[in-house]
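Methods, example record. To illustrate the input and output format used throughout this study, we show the complete record for Molybdopterin synthase sulfur carrier subunit. The sequence lines were provided to the predictor; the line carrying structure tokens was produced by it.
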Amino acid sequence: MTIKIRYFASLRERLGRSEDTVAFEEALTVSDVWYRANPDQALPVNILAAVNMDYVALDSIVEDNDEVAFFPPVTGG
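The corresponding predicted structure is encoded as:
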């Protein structure tokens, strides 16, 4: 099974890439997906996550062919 991962804004700049693909066999949460794709990077504080364009909690389970997006909190002014 595979999951597409997308990074936005400062996360994309910090990681030096805009997307990844992760293969897995067991159930993964959104935070598990982060650590699979970024084993040497701590999960940023206050990070937002979406699965298939819907906001989700970091303990949400992902499924085959899901798209997981990570982005920093958005502020406006």
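Annotations derived from this record:
The chain has a mean pLDDT of 93.
The beta strands are 2-7, 19-23, 28-29, 48-51, 54-55, 61-62, 67-71.
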